[in-house]
Amino acid sequence: xxxxxxxxxxxxxxxxxxxxxxxxxxxxxxxxxxxxxxxxxxxxxxxxxxxxxxxxxxxxxxxxxxxxxxxxxxxxxxxxxxxxxxxxxxxxxxxxxxxxxxxxxxxxxxxxxxxxxxxxxxxxxxxxxxxxxxxxxxxxxxxxxxxxxxxxxxxxxxxxxxxxxxxxxxxxxxxxxxxxxxxxxxxxxxxxxxxxxxxxxxxxxxxxxxxxxxxxxxxxxxxxxxxxxxxxxxxxxxxxxxxxxxxxxxxxxxxxxxxxxxxxxxxxxxxxxxxxxxxxxxxxxxxxxxxxxxxxxxxxxxxxxxxxxxxxxxxxxxxxxxxxxxxxxxxxxxxxxxxxxxxxxxxxxxxxxxxxxxxxxxxxxxxxxxxxxxxxxxxxxxxxxxxxxxxxxxxxxxxxxxxxxxxxxxxxxxxxxxxxxxxxxxxxxxxxxxxxxxxxxxxxxxxxxxxxxxxxxxxxxxxxxxxxxxxxxxxxxxxxxxxxxxxxxxxxxxxxxxxxxxxxxxxxxxxxxxxxxxxxxxxxxxxxxxxxxxxxxxxxxxxxxxxxxxxxxxxxxxxxxxxxxxxxxxxxxxxxxxxxxxxxxxxxxxxxxxxxxxxxxxxxxxxxxxxxxxxxxxxxxxxxxxxxxxxxxxxxxxxxxxxxxxxxxxxxxxxxxxxxxxxxxxxxxxxxxxxxxxxxxxxxxxxxxxxxxxxxxxxxxxxxxxxxxxxxxxxxxxxxxxxxxxxxxxxxxxxxxxxxxxxxxxxxxxxxxxxxxxxxxxxxxxxxxxxxxxxxxxxxxxxxxxxxxxxxxxxxxxxxxxxxxxxxxxxxxxxxxxxxxxxxxxxxxxxxxxxxxxxxxxxxxxxxxxxxxxxxxxxxxxxxxxxxxxx
Length: 871
Fold this sequence. Notes:
The chain is an all-alpha fold and 871 residues long. It has helices at 8-25, 58-75, 88-101, 122-125, 138-143, 159-171, 241-268, 274-281, 288-294, 302-327, 334-337, 346-385, 390-395, 398-422, 426-437, 446-472, 491-503, 512-525, 539-578, 584-591, 614-629, 635-645, 649-655, 657-679, 683-713, 726-777, 784-811, 813-819, 830-851, 853-870, and strands at 80-83, 106-109, 129-132, 193-198, 203-209.
């Protein structure tokens, strides 16, 4: 026991006066972040049971004593601190001091008061435990006799006020005391002990303990069970609208992909069962993006895709188990409000239960039963008809196998979690559901599990999406076709490593083990926050959340690690390309395709849809233009023309004409096939033709660059256009310009295959980390300030490094010339601004809005008021 100074009211008055003086220097708009009128300070007053304070400096001395007391609590790592105070404002002041000075200590109170919900106070008190006689929970009066048959619902401001009300009734020899017994029962003669927690909008009961009879406590004779006064299908009223909507969204999220899987395998395999075929027939075709995520890929990634797809189905099943376990939890407490049957026969009891709860059982059991069938058939479709065998699992890369094992383990954890919450006593299970169903109360256990489940699902979708993008955005190891010799020395090596980093398995990413170990090392240095203390909903709840969060954190950081590795290698490639003599062609490519008046506004966007083939068509047109300039002459002039072209660029193009014509014709035929497949929505065939097309374009690029290599090297004999007529010089210059535009266009095509995949890697990491942050900040975990700090550090580090790379991309010389900026300088174009907003401002505002919703609302309202005043 650590007694605080007796005159704590004086310390509180001085502290609040000092804070008020600081706040007055910066004029804050009235109502900024407030929902309620400010709480007036009652002042220290003069308590008759305390010795008066005769010294003016006693308050300062007490403040120092309190600071020393808080330092002791912090240094000795007290896990829990109980506060007993006769003045409610003193108790609130002490909790604020504990929050500021001992953030990892959990305070609890011994008196319930609705003042804890005031907007000036609530943020510091959310998650505080209260041990009291009366819960101040309005629904409890509906559950207890005699108020459940009384149309009035009395809302007391504090537990003391309700106790005085019941004391007066007891003095008047009335037996109608409010909440003087256990819910749904009047068998107890004395009020129970309630354990509640402070939420955003109410004091939410957590558990209840019957009290033993005591001679100093007024007793009341037992009464009949209060369940007889409740209406039939009473359980329907327990479900708020928000849990109904949320669970229906969970059902849709979990079943729609599985319905499509059944439809797909119904079309591809006639051995599917009758129910599976029936469900497949009634399912509409999926959107194009969903189809590309779930359908098989090419042979190179087929094993990884199928294993990742099964991991996705297991993640859906885990998500469904957790949501359904809480959704059906009132079934565990159904005996509380169902009147006892007249017979002990199980059949009579069953009929009695159906009589009083038939509508409730039908509407609440039907959605999960249908969903279980769909999920089961969807997973069976992959195992039975998807060709997933043990050999496929062995062929898969490291990360899909790890994800599959983690997903299977997640299903087991979800089942164990469901068993634990169903093993509770019926009344505790009911209280758990009521608190979990109100998702926005700040203490719902379902809300953080939903967020971490969304993050886990997003991880599975991200891996499927990444594999799909690696097929749609076709990249070969010799995509550019420039080779690795002569003036292009080093470019081929940089290109191959860049492509390999985008396509390789996760365990081949540079510093793979560093990304794996980083979250664990940081968690170890912070002394395992959230583990040593028991959370409000038990130790297993905390372990369940932390294990899933750690795996998701690590996997998402690996996405970010791949993004960093790809950019550094791509940056080296772009620097090497800028040193090539063709560097001026990037500016010409941007400005030469539009009228001079529009040249300054022209941009070549590097993030394009995967079905865009504009750069390929432009490259083929450049080669055709060159071939038109060196068309064969007539027989009479053929010998003279050939002699005049010897040693020139035009002569080298003429010599390679036959090869170039064949390559152009082959590439054009494959391009036509790609366009036909895209028009017929045969995207898998289109990808195969696109792979052949890019291979042909690489061969064409190789022949063309070899043809013009003497001009770019200038070290193989005489200058290729140093001699000859003026017309011949102009012809060579035109051919060189077309060749340089061809090279620049091939580089643009390469960047359009790389940049979308890089951007999606950033999206994968950012959205997943944001979902985890929202989960951490939506529940009062033990040591939540330390956990929140860890999450903020990880997120802000990712955002900061992301901005660093975006600045490098913006300043890159090749990219700047394509986007119309100044090479080597920071260009504030629309692309860069949107990157700052989408990947920086939006996540930070979303997190601030979750942790400080009223403050953020005040900021926007104040900003809107300023705009309105200016207008």
